[in-house]
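Deviations from the work plan: none for this task. Representative record:
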Amino acid sequence: MATNSALMGFVHRRRRGAELFLLVLALIVGIGAYAAVGLGVDGEVPTNLIGYGGWLTLLVVAAHIAVRIVAPYADPVLLPVVAALNGLGLAIIHRIDLAKDTGLASQQLTWMTLGVVLFVGTLIVLPDHRLLARFTYTSGLTAIALLILPMIPGLGTQINGARIWIALGPFSFQPGEIAKVLLVITFAGYLVVHRDALALAGRRVVFVDLPRGRDLGPILMMWVVSLGILVLQRDLGSSLLFFGLFLVMLYVATERPGWLVVGALLFFGGAAVAFRIFSHVQSRVDIWLDPFADADGSGYQLVQALYGFAWGGLVGRGLGEGMPQRVPYVESDFILAAIGEELGLTAVMAVLLLYGLVVERALRAALISRDGFGKLVATGLAAVFALQVFVVIGGVTRLIPLTGLTTPFLSYGGSSLVANWVIIAILLRISDQARRPLPDLAADEAEDPDDQATQVVKVMPEWR
Amino acid sequence: MNKPIRAVSIFCMFLFLALMANVTYVQFWKSDDYNTDPRNARVAEASYSRERGQILVGDQPVAESKKSDDRYKYLRVYPESGARMFAPVTGYLQLGSQTGIERSQNAVLTGEDPQLFVTRLVDLLKGETAQGGNVVLTLDAAAQKAAFEGLRDTLGPRGEGSVVAIQPKTGRVLAMASYPSYDPNELATHDSAKASEAYQALDADEREPLLNRALRTRLFPGSTFKLVTAAAAIEDGKYHAGDDVPAGASYQPPGTTHDIGNDGRSRCSPEKISFATAMEWSCNTTFARLAVEVGPEKMREQAEAFGFNSTSLLDLQGQVQSVYPTGVDVPDGEGGGTRELSLAETAQTGIGQNAVQSTPLQMAMVTAAIANQGKLMRPYLVEKVQTAGFNVLRTTEPETLNESAVSAATAGELTQLLEATVDNGTASPAAIPNVRVAGKTGTAQRGDSLCSAGGKPPYAWFVSFAPAEDAEVAVAVMIEEAPDRACNEIAGGQLGGPIAKAVMEAVLEK
């Protein structure tokens, strides 16, 4: 086909220079914000600006060099975007440190260092993302084990009512963040193999193709798992995230909207039951409907966040000129309230656009990826990211009930930051594979379109 | 799989659009609501972090912000000498709340007022924290001092009362005192435990020191309301200042067996006396009869022309409407609804009893309108708004509330009667040598029994203006409680007269 051969002839440029330029801009955001915090709070540039800026630059440049060497065709936008988000997050956490007299920013910088190390490590260890398909069931079991960990007495700790942390000596750790990545791999591996059965069998009811009863197994299992998280760990956000993630991937794999209908029904059914049975779900909804009913009690956090956003207005109060410490847990779940207060609607929009860019670049990688597994992993990671951003930012701005999730790359929290850097590494790997010029066999003009469609099936066994 | 991936992209786009729309709603459309929410301590707290403008009387600050070393950059300070005296007007600034001028002029004082936009922009460009603008009050420091100290010294430590002085030609409030008062510094302290302790103590005090009695306490105005009755009678053309009016030792209004007497003032006993005598001796029988002759409708119209049944002060929140009844509620058991005042009730309103109630501010307005040839001006407290650099941004223009609450002729006749009352009658304690003073006393019964019968002490009132021919000041004094005085000593002339005199002198000495 003409268009196809034209596509085949198209070779993506590496664009590493563009990435470097964007990274410089990202560093200006991160280091500039850090300096501005010092100016705003103490009236002088922080004394450790050189050391801090140097370290941040070192991390970012190291990540860039790693990409240049091991993933030269990777998407040039993703890394600068997350570098900007992470830098901004660090500056805001530093701002909150100054207000609360804590020292979280330096810990977060340590976590970021670990995140970048794992980022580089992932890129090196994983020359081809299809390697991950080997671990379909291993990662699934690991994910479930990780999710169960916090339930083990003595190991798990309950913070703010949610039992999603484990404590190892001085470190506390949120296994759910890692489980998120592993579940994407599991779903993708499973769906790539079983998509035909899930897609083709079934019958049409009214206008919707409904799946066969026996194929409902996995979705029901996922439904049970996410309800289990909701019930046992009282973690609204994660259960919503996992179930939504699975639905999206199922839909993409089977191309059948019927799954969405079934899934949505299951979700709303489960949510309605959970609302009736569990008081913590009810109270979240009550707070959402009217946070001002108990403005000094249960609604306090949300009310203070809303006041913070309003106080910031269009352009914000300026870094160091607001009172972000009035919002409880502003450094983790509610960090966007601090940004909204001190940098205004403008910055909140910018942050949302950056998140949107991450999702868009991930979905673009999925679109151009040449194998089904890569498409599914990239879509899954994009969906995780989009859902998480929507749920947490929607929660803190009172669009939807608050559920409690971290804001990727901005919030204080090691597990989340590290997991997100690994997600970006996997996405870069998929885009690198997708944008890389095809090997010789792809240039074979004789190849017919049918062959392309079954390419995944052809390639996969080699990796198994 | 690309088709569903595109569908997912579009879905994600909608998620992000929803977030953007929502955050725009919160930070743009709703931000004013949240920022003016009284529960929002953040805004008040922020106001401690920048230099709030001054509140000035003349060129002396009565509220200013001083640099502070604790958790906030500035402390609101009310200079010691005048803190209690000016507190009912200035109000106080506390974390999460403010009252008085601090509240009503908050936008100017914080610098958020649109008029200060240019100043704010210049501050921003110079890299300085924006400063709030100043508010200059109409108060006359000497008059305010005379009013506050007069109340304090006359009523004793347990007394309660209020004084309002108005410049009749403009409506400028020259004095607004309320006693007892409080020290706003105690409430403005950054030590929130101390501040809340101080607030709770003041709030629990049964003498209500936080209450601005000048505009929030309304009582029976008693005989001072006879100004309104006389005005209605003259306006109606029934009588003139030189005429004789009906009087009598007692008067039994139609449809009742309840007698209205004169508390033993024998000069009121003849059936006919001159209008001046009736005013001089505050004859109840005369004014009760006049009210009945004029009728409830005309009485109400006259009272409303002076500002009853409405609010007029814009510069302070919380003015309570003074009342001349528009009707009487009929209990549901007797058919419900409202009916017109009966003649017996009208007779009582004529002497400032029954359902007539007035604030000190309202009685000052009545007096000022008479002093100003019948023209009622809107009372105001904010003279000027300035930038932090004392450049005048706005000067309040006097505003006419009622071009002729009474005609100039009526006002002249009333002035004659009131002058006579000071010269020969009950208002003589307010007389000032070489100045023509017009005035009227009021002693309003509380409950049915009199002092002599062991009843509660009455409310004492005094209204006056001077110089009578071209008044510069009109004063209303209200005495709610004076427990250190003997019951029969509590009368408008004895207690209120000297205070009014001191306030008038303070203004006229300029």
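The first strand of chain A starts at residue 156 and ends at 159.
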